[in-house]
Sequence to fold (182 residues):
Amino acid sequence: MSEETPNYLKSLIDKGVCIEHLKIGECIFTSRPLIISTVLGSCVSATIHHSKTGFSAMFHAMLPSIENARNPSQPCNYVDNALESLFARFEARGVKLETLSIRLFGGGLTMYSDEKREFGEILDVGRKNVEIAKAMLKQRGLKIIREDILGNQGRKVLFYTKTGEVWMKFVSSSFKTDYVSR
Fold:
């Protein structure tokens, strides 16, 4: 992250751009300029932006599929359902999905090292979340323009819905910058 990035974010906030914290199991679809913020461990999030209309979306899903859900009362808890729900919102507004800019984040295995050795493969929900997201996007012929996935660290993601700009940092390190070309 360049030294200007925190100042740029601060200037957006000073100009009245609201920050919305995206919690587990939530989806946001908007045409308003917002900075959407979320923190991920094994959960997966995607930022979805359509530059021509200004529509943007982001979800924070905890589990891969709603198929075997005992209580599907929070549909954005599930990667497959969150993506389908957001895609339907874009399509309802006449947006062709292949024109979307999609970035994928999260899916980390953030357990302590002893737990990783003992339960890692069984409990690697993050990997399953990433696999479902990638499979669904591939099935629809959609490309991910940037990803920062898997590994063993949590991530904080900030998404500026007006421009599609995304900043990501590992929870214990400095930001990586990813500017969308307009």
The helical segments are 4-14, 79-92, 113-123, 125-139. Residues 125-139 form the longest helix (15 residues).
